[in-house]
Amino acid sequence: MAVSDQPQGSWTGSVVLLLASSTGGIGQHVASLTRGLRERGIQVTVCGPLATEQQFRFTATGAGFVPVEIPADPGPGDVGSVRAVRRVLAAGPDVVHAHGLRAGLVAALARPAAPLIVTWHNSVLGTGLRGRLSRWAQRRVARAAQVTLGASADLVATATALGAPDARLGPVAAPQLPPPRRSRAAVRAEFGLGAQQPLVLSVGRLHPQKRYDLLVDVSARWRELSPPAQVAIAGTGPSYLSLAAQISAVRAPVTLLGHRNDVSDLLLGADLAVVCSDWEARQLFAQEALRAGVPLVATAVGGLPELVGDAAVLIPAGDVDALDAAVRDLLRDHQRRADYAERGPVRARNWPTETDTVDLVSAVYQEVAAARPDRQDAPDGGFVDGRG
Known about the structure:
Shape: globular
Strand order of the largest sheet: 3-2-1-4-5-6-7
Distance between the termini: 21 Å
Number of strands: 15
Order of helices and strands: EHEHEHEHEHEHEHEHEHEHEHEHEHHHEE
CATH architecture of the largest domain: 3-Layer(aba) Sandwich
CATH superfamily of the largest domain: Glycogen Phosphorylase B
Helix content: 40-55%
């Protein structure tokens, strides 16, 4: 039978998932999609930098993987990336799904015959020449995709304003963390913390957008607290060296942990979680913290207010004093922390799950594949390429 006659969720065609360099949320999302799609019998080929396969192990699900280097910033190397993607697309997938602006631009320039879906995970915050190039890329990608999925409502609005023919909300669910393997006391012992000493945790890519420089600055003030607060930041990225130098210069009580696979352990040991980004959609660590019942202080930007509701303390972006006050207030008020610890898991019950996300995406695949003008039903009920 034709795809259009199939029940929702039964589509079992082929899709190419494309991503650029990622050590965090986008890579985790693509890995989650890959698992879910393969469980539904969908043929998946992931294209991206070799480092993403090494970190996220897409092939462990039975998916194919083709290395395509797409660095974080555009450059002459994009020509080679486009050619590599075209070679993959020569196999004739039913759908192409790019994740992020960089991958979306490469996919758009490759001009796939198959329908192109692009998930927007981030907003453009850059200024100057880089900002102008990024906004040009946004417009090019918005108009090239048959369907744009925005991880937050503001991304959907931006894509629509830039000419996207079909822009929809496509929430990105944080994968469920495994249970902690260590006790709270064992986690805190790693940092040499006493029973009453607060541990403030943040997890994310070390990138200027995350504004960890603010967290370092404000944490230097917390040395005066009794007992003083300790801050741990887990993640890797281009800001590592500058943050390390800043920590040393202001004598901040901050430990840069690098990449960690034990976020559930770290959350168990933490008293507070902090997200101080200039912009986020549905930040994965914010989801993880609320699910774990760890009180969260977060900036009121992008999709975060819609995500957390009244289950977190929201502050203005870029406001060091507001961040300082919010953390101090929670640290000295045990009952208020306990209240937010209860609100988090309740709020999280209303979020889409990984299964919900895969259901939504596979339904979009079914929809756009059925509408392809270059396909027709084959005698065996499958598809043949209508281009001859």
